[in-house]
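Thread title: Can someone regenerate the structure for this chain?

I was given the following input by a collaborator and told the matching structure tokens would be attached. They weren't. Posting the sequence so someone can regenerate them.
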Amino acid sequence: MWAWGALDLGAFCGKMHEIPGRLRWRDRRRQSGIGGDSALPPLTLAPSRSAACLCAFLALAGCKQRRVDAGSSLSGELPARPPAGLLPASPAPAVAGTPPAGALLADIAAMPAGPLPAGPLPAGPPSAGSRPAGPPPAASGPAAEAAVAAVAASAASAASVPVREPVNLSELDRGNGYWECMLPDPGMGHYAPMRQVPLGWVFIPKKGGHTGDMGFDVLVHFHGFQAVRKSIVGLPTGVVLAGFELGTSSGAYADKVSPLLFESIRASITTALRAQTKDDRAHIRHLALTAWSAGYAAVNRILRGGDQGIDAVVLLDGLHTGYLNPTPEEPQPLDVASLEPILAFAERAAAGEKIFFFTHSEVGTNTYASTTKTANLLLSRLKLAPTPGPPTKDPYGLTSFVQQKGLYVRGYGGANEAAHCDQVRFMRDAVHEVLEPAWGTPPATD
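Best answer:
Regenerated them for you:
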């Protein structure tokens, strides 16, 4: 429905002031983005007295109407905050090689959004803001391999360590309901209003972000889409972001996504680009498959059909597999075969043919392998040893990192739900430090 009708200023401001702060917190949690808009019942925004008065004044002065979900209300109790510890695992997974639907992935997936970076963009390989001179590299072939190698060489010569500043929330922020898994929404930045496509949404820069022949660089993201949008919207980035929420467990993504569906997704993104730009030349120039948490299963499923036309993969604390014949006393070897598509792509990245960016926390799991274990599996397969991270007081700070040509693997501290949510923020590192410099992504313009 549409808010802002004929309002009595005094009554409106009074009613807005009476709405409990906990309900305001609940609405912000709904808007956080992790788990999709269906994670919490819809609620209208409840501002403070001063904000309500200001909005009413602007409404009467002729400002644009604010759209509110139809059927929303302010009734109901605030859902309990997720527990600090890990939740018990469910029985063995229904799909071979994937975690059980009721285990940690499913429970954490419905949590509010992870923290976004505070302060300046953290340093890391390659240097933030650096971009290769000259024309953008080709999407594939020797030119693309040379571009990836150039990025790796630049990072190696800088000898910099990927670090970030801890997130510091003020008492006022915490009083307003914000915590490590839910920070304020920075807005839309230079992106146009989202365009809906089958099964998802597409965010396209209002202006710029494309080459002279209308080529766009695109991220196709699975799981926690709105949280990822918040993490990169403040960057001077020209990438297009397409997001898809298909469930709360890795099994849901593995069941629903296929190489054939991915081709349909690509076609729908191209249609959206042409509609936004009103130019039939608009096309996808580079494409990265990205995912947080359970969304990795969609990436793995797509790669089973081959990696042609896929230039990069970004996984944020999401890469799991089952155990082969596990027992309570001793877990057996990991089900490596189920991860073969992703592992093979990572090998190509280490050889300079693709880009693979993988971050993991220290969150433990019981009946399936954690991201720490799968990271160790990957590095062992590639015969690479991680470098320890620098000393830090940040509980979610860098603990280890590896870079080999187009391969980036970074480990971070923290073994609770906040640490898992915190991983979303590293999408901006992947975009600004790695993908855009390698691709020569044209910036968005105001």
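The chain has a mean pLDDT of 72.
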